[in-house]
């Protein structure tokens, strides 16, 4: 019995937030992880997980009336290879840098956000105009980031002799640079919006760009695996939520055990590099295990 305590109400609100995310992206465990890791506070998470998981599962099942249970992205997951492992190793410092950079930029812009009501229409309109002009050259930068991630996951290795390799890299790197900048501009202008999908867009585009560069160098690598791992790593970094980053990103495509392993292999070292709190937590748990 949850009762009507403040703690119970907070758990229900957090679970409802996770349920909305779960239903939208057909990701029940990711929605529950969002509720527990990002919305709930320390002290209620263990109890809250017992509520969040069934609530998010029910919300997802209801959403199947529309989605029919299909994942948000449909990709072909390739098995492990030495080239892909090399790509995952190289991806760690790349996504750590991008995640920290995007997080700091967005925080900086929010701290300087336009707050005077009379200037909001002008500021938001100007941000929209800039975004629209940029989208004439890089169409995938518009929207919340879902289209950009879909484009990254759907990237194919271009013919080396056609000059398309350079064009593909320019497009992907354009998203990596422009998406966080335009998101920050929009937030600074006073508009409201999430940072989850932009994080996915930046990370997946970076992973796909790295894969294309390695392919052009003669290294066989899975573009989709690097794109998924990059998306999860940047998301985990910007939100400071490794479990959410891993589980939610994997559920977007449900792309097999190898992709899940790749996500874990990239996200965990990225978190160790970028979060002192997480490093201290891991060190404390290791010490406790050693004392047993």
Description:
The protein is built from 12 helices and no strands. With about 290 residues, the protein is an all-alpha fold. The protein folds into 2 domains: about 1-65, no CATH class; about 80-280, Clc chloride channel (Orthogonal Bundle). The two termini are about 35 Å apart.
Short description:
Pfam families: Voltage_CLC. The chain has 292 residues and is an all-alpha fold. The protein has helices at 6-25, 28-39, 45-67, 82-111, 120-135, 146-153, 164-188, 196-216, 223-239, 242-253, 257-274, 276-291.
What sort of overall outline do the alpha carbons produce when their principal axes are compared? Answer: globular
Q: Structurally, how many domains make up the residues?
A: 2
The number of distinct β-strands equals 0
CATH class of the largest domain: Mainly Alpha
CATH topology term of the largest domain: Clc chloride channel
**SS content category:** mainly alpha
Q: Helical stretch count? A: 12
What is the residue-averaged pLDDT? 90
Q: What would you say the CATH architecture of the largest domain is?
A: Orthogonal Bundle
Largest sheet: none
Question: Rg, please?
Answer: 20 Å
N-to-C SSE string, H for helix and E for strand: HHHHHHHHHHHH
Taken as a percent bin, the fraction of beta residues is: under 5%
**Helix percentage range:** over 70%
* Low-pLDDT segments, ≥5 res: none
- What is the assigned CATH homologous superfamily of the largest domain? Clc chloride channel
Distance between the termini: 35 Å
């Amino acid at each position: 019995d949850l009762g009507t305590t403040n703690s119970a109400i907070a758990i229900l609100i957090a679970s409802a937030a996770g349920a909305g995310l779960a239903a939208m992206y057909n990701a029940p465990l990711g929605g529950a992880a969002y509720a527990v890791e990002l919305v709930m506070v320390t002290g209620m998470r263990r109890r809250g997980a017992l509520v969040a998981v069934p609530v998010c599962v029910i919300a997802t099942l209801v959403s199947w009336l529309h989605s029919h249970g299909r994942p948000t992205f449909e990709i072909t997951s390739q098995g492990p290879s030495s080239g892909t492992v090399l790509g995952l190793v190289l991806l760690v410092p790349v996504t750590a840098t991008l995640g920290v950079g995007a997080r700091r930029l967005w925080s900086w812009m929010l701290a300087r956000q336009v707050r005077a009501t009379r200037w909001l229409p002008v500021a938001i309109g100007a941000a929209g105009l800039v975004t629209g002009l940029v989208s004439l050259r890089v169409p995938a930068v518009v929207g919340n980031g879902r289209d950009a991630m879909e484009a990254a996951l759907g990237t194919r290795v271009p013919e080396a002799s056609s000059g398309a390799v350079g064009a593909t890299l320019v497009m992907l790197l354009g998203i990596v640079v422009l998406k966080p900048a335009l998101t920050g501009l929009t937030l600074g202008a006073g508009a409201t919006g999430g940072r989850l999908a932009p994080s996915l867009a930046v990370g997946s585009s970076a992973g796909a760009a790295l894969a294309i560069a390695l392919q052009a160098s003669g290294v066989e690598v899975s573009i989709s695996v690097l794109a998924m791992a990059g998306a999860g790593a940047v998301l985990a970094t910007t939100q400071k939520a490794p479990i959410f980053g891993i589980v939610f990103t994997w559920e977007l495509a449900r792309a097999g055990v190898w992709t899940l392993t790749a996500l874990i292999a990239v996200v965990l070292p990225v978190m160790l590099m970028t979060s002192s709190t997480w490093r201290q937590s891991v060190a404390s748990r290791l010490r406790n295990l050693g004392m047993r």
